[in-house]
Amino acid sequence: MCSSILRATRVNAALFAVVAVVALWPASTQAQTASQRAEAEVIPSLTVSGQASVSIAPDRAEMGVAVESRARTAAQAASDNARIQSSVLDALRRLGVTGAQVQTRSVQVSPEFQYPREGGRPTLTGYVARNEIQVTLSDLTKIGPVLDAALGQGATQISGPHFTLANPDSARREALDAAVRKALADAQVMARAAGVRVGRILEMSSGGSPGAPEFARPVVMMRAAADAAPTPIEAGLITIEASVQLRVAIFP
């Protein structure tokens, strides 16, 4: 009997301790949050922002290669389109473009209509089939030959090239580093002008999408003659930008 009473007393004491901790935890958290807010309000500070960019040569290119075919029936349009696109893919393989570098974007077959100028019911004139693939190249010297080979085998539309970086992290971090340095330099100038000194960093964040590359707009190219002059390609540079915002403490 005594041992049962003793065990019950211990259980009640343990439950009381748990309840006490749970009851005090929100108050402790609220007190800490209030303390942090008070500290943020008390510490004099200034907020600065910095932007920086890094220009770097791209090491990857993406482009779309499309074939459009027209025929009186949907089946014939699709068949003609498949034959031409297969020839295009064979030409790319001969240039060393592997299957991992080619991905189908879309395959479409749709009717075409002629609409009378005076209005009325449109007339079905045939069907158009379209097959578009995306080609990704890490050897930028192949861009021109790939485009010429595709057009020579019957491709009707080229979009791109769209230049990118296979691994933009290094350039992004370089831009972030420069952006932080610029922000701190501006903070020093502002503080000196105001007759105060810069202390520790209270808050720091990156704005927007740092490291997002800026690209030239894709171009659309079409060529009917297979013996046209080789396509010249200049990769140039792409720009990676970063922006940061700092709030630093200041003191006399």
TrEMBL record:
<dbReference type="Pfam" id="PF04402">
    <property type="entry name" value="SIMPL"/>
</dbReference>
<keyword id="KW-0732">Signal</keyword>
<protein>
    <submittedName>
        <fullName>SIMPL domain-containing protein</fullName>
    </submittedName>
</protein>
<feature type="signal peptide">
    <location>
        <begin position="1"/>
        <end position="31"/>
    </location>
</feature>
<dbReference type="GO" id="GO:0006974">
    <property type="term" value="P:DNA damage response"/>
</dbReference>
<dbReference type="InterPro" id="IPR007497">
    <property type="entry name" value="SIMPL/DUF541"/>
</dbReference>
<dbReference type="InterPro" id="IPR052022">
    <property type="entry name" value="26kDa_periplasmic_antigen"/>
</dbReference>
